Amino acid sequence: MRRTGILGFAAFGLVAALGLTAYATEPHPSELYKQYCAKCHGDDGKADTPKGKQLMARKFTDAEWQAGESDAELIKSVTKGKEDMPPWGKKLTPAQIESLVKNDVRGFSPKN
To answer: Which domains, ranges and CATH numbers included, belong to the chain?
Structure first.
C-alpha cells in the first residue's frame, strides 16, 4: 500500500512538471499586449482575429518577418503607426513600447 502511494505521488509530480514545462515554453502575452495589440494580432500572435483578418495584420509568428525587422524598426512602427496600424506613441510610454516589442512581439518568434 505504501509503495502504491509513493508511485502515485511520483506519477502526479511527473505530470505536473511536464505541464509546467509546456506552459513555460508557450508565449504568454502581457496585459499591455492584450489591451492594445491582441484585438488585431491575436493572443497567439497569429493575427487570426476578425479585425486582424480585415486589416491583414502582421503575423508575429512568421520567422522570416521576425528575422527581417530590427527592434528599432518595430519600436518606430508601434510609436508612429504603420499602414493600418494606429500610432501608440501618445498613449504608451517609450518603456511600454520597448517592452511590447522585446517581450511580446519577439516572444512569438518561432524557436529554431
So the answer is: 28-108 (1.10.760.10)
